[in-house]
């Protein structure tokens, strides 16, 4: 990976804070700033681990535990919401359409 050197001016207080954080993380200010900028640039577009692992997964009826409000996807239990707050249809598979933290939104697959 090639890199370009540039100069950035920080107010004294921000630089002091950067220096403290870099020291506490045992890294350089440069690495801290590059990592922070990468996160800022990709943060809104980078899918969460839940999104990467569960979106569009088909959930068979036996993996939806409606009495406890949990659903098992890829061996992990999540809380769930149904798309329109509909009740779970007992003999119907669902597809995961969204993930927010450990809460999945699921939609019934029409037969």
Automatic annotation (TrEMBL):
- Pfam families with a match to the protein in the record: Arc
Molecular function terms from GO: DNA binding
Among the record's GO biological process terms, what is one?
A: regulation of DNA-templated transcription
How far does the signal peptide extend, from start to end residue? none
Q: Where is the Arc-like DNA binding domain?
A: 8-42
| Name of the protein described by the UniProt record | Arc-like DNA binding domain-containing protein
**Highest lineage ranks of the organism?**
Bacteria, Bacillati, Bacillota, Bacilli, Lactobacillales
């Amino acid at each position: 990976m090639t890199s370009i050197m540039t100069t950035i001016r920080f107010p004294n207080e921000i630089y002091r804070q950067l220096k403290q954080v870099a020291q506490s993380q045992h890294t350089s200010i440069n690495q801290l700033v590059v990592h922070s900028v990468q996160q800022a640039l990709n943060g809104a577009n980078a899918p969460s681990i839940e999104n990467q692992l569960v979106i569009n997964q088909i959930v068979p009826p036996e993996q939806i535990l409606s009495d406890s409000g949990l659903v098992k996807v890829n061996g992990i239990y999540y809380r769930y919401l149904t798309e329109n707050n509909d009740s779970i249809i007992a003999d119907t598979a669902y597809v995961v359409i969204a993930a927010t933290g450990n809460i999945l939104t699921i939609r019934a697959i029409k037969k």
